[in-house]
Amino acid sequence: MGKVLFWIVLILAALMVARVLARHNERSRVDGNRSDTPRPNAKPESMVRCEHCGIHLPRSEATLIEGRTWCSQEHARLGSKQ
Questions:
Q1: What's the mean pLDDT when you consider all of the chain?
Q2: How far, CA to CA in Å, does 67 sit from each of 41, 51, 62, 77?
Q3: What CA–CA distance (Å, rounded) separates 21 from 40?
Q4: Over pLDDT 70: what percentage of the chain?
Q5: Which terminus has fewer CB within 10 Å in the chain: N or C?
Q6: DSSP state of 38
Q7: Separation of CA 6 from chain center
Q8: In this structure, are residues 53 and 42 in contact, taking their beta carbons and an 8 Å threshold?
């Protein structure tokens, strides 16, 4: 009876250790793949405001016409919103 109890306890302990290690590995994998971590060569970019709708967008994605910034060609065509 003592040997059977010993093996049951040993198997349960091994299962607990395996579960803890699996959780730890999953957390490490998730933490390593986070999108909110800054990329090493990502540079901050200035934001501009669309003259028509007021949305803020990165300068590289904006349309610049006659010194004014627009979020799209359509809004540039429509002009400033009064």
A1: 87
A2: 30, 11, 12, 14
A3: 30
A4: 89
A5: C
A6: P
A7: 47
A8: no
Residue position matching structure tokens 């359509």: 74
Q: How many Cβ atoms sit within 10 Å of the Cβ of residue 62?
A: 21
Residues 23/26/27/33 CA torsion (nearest 10 deg): 180
79 and 52 in contact (C-beta within 8 Å)? yes
Place of tokens 């994998």: 29
What tens digit of pLDDT does each residue of 2-25 get? 899 999 999 999 999 999 999 999
Contact 63, 76 (CB under 8 A): yes
Residue 72 contacts residue 51 (beta carbons within 8 Å): no
49's tokens:
């405001």
Report, in this order, helix, strand and coil percent for the chain, each rounded to 5: 50, 15, 35
The pLDDT score that the predictor gives to residue 47 is 94
